[in-house]
Structures are given as structure tokens and as C-alpha cells.
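Hey, can you fold this one?
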Amino acid sequence: MKRRGFLVILSGPSSAGKNTLLSAIKGRVPGMLYSISVTTRKPRPGERHGVDYFFLDDAEFTRLRDSGGLLEWAEYCGHYYGTPREFVEDSLAAGHIVITDIDIQGARQIRTAMPEAVAVFLMPPSLEELQKRIVARGTDSEAAIKERMKRAVDEMKYVVDYDYWILNTDLDQAVTDLLAIITAERQRVERTEFP
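Sure. Predicted structure:
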């Protein structure tokens, strides 16, 4: 019996808790790999190149994008982000589950290229809580915070385009929900080659 790999897209508004949720499930799903995105933004305190993101300058990002090396890419708040194609395709071919956290625009691009990808939308508990989280990061100007909030309201309308949604009011429950989705998707008959 051989299992086919599949891609899990986790997206939602900025500061909905995607990174926290991914950190909480790390190591709990055998054979699951995290797709590290590339970005042109500067590292935040504690972030490391090749661990949290691949931090590229604009020219490096443009070369990778123009050569077809990105599965998706997007501009967000003045910076570019993308998902390296080769890593995802090679990992899926090897039977791994690959999980990535990307914005709404990137999720749409991947769903077009890979309609079999499993899309999960992470909803914040409330807009007020979302704004508190963005402010607490301490990395954005007042104008950037307003832009992120405006964009979050717009992005939440796209939840209907996803396969699943998780309300992130309690991290333990969000972990349970995401693990249940991954387990159910792993057990789908069409993802298994029977002898």
C-alpha cells in the first residue's frame, strides 16, 4: 500500500494565528513537511533565513518567479512572497504531506494549478482580537495596521472558496481541528494505491 502526497494550504488574514498553529502541530503528523516561502520583506526579530522564510532581494525574487520556480506568488503590503515549486512537487511525488501558509491570492493561484490541494481557512476570533494581535507584534506602522485590518475584512469573505475553516479562539481546539482534517484527508481512498 502506497499513499500519495497532498498539499494543505492554510490561509487567513494576517495575524489570524497561522504560524502559531503550524508551530503547534509541528512533528505531530508523520511524513508532513512545511513549505518554506520566499519573501522580499526583512526578517522580524527571531526569524531565520531558511527556517522561517528564504529572505531574497527583489532581483533574486524576480529571477525565481520569471523562471517558473514559484508555484504561486503575491505582493502583500509592499513585499513579495512565493512558494517554491520544486520543493512542493518533489515532496508530493515522494508521498509526503506538504503544508504551507499563504495569503488568499496565493491560495487561489495554487488551487488553479493544483485543484486537488486541501484548502483550510483560519478565522480570527473577532476583528477586535485580530487588531490586538497585529498591534502586539510591534512591527507595523499605524498605516500598515490600518491596511492589514482593511485587507482582513475583505479576505474573510473568501472563506466560502475553501474546503474547511477553523475558528481560532482556542489554540488547542484549532490544533485538534487541523489534525482531524489532515488525518481525514490522508485516509481518502483516492490518495492510496492498493496492491
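The two ends are 6 Å apart (CA to CA). Let me know if you want another pass with a different chain boundary.
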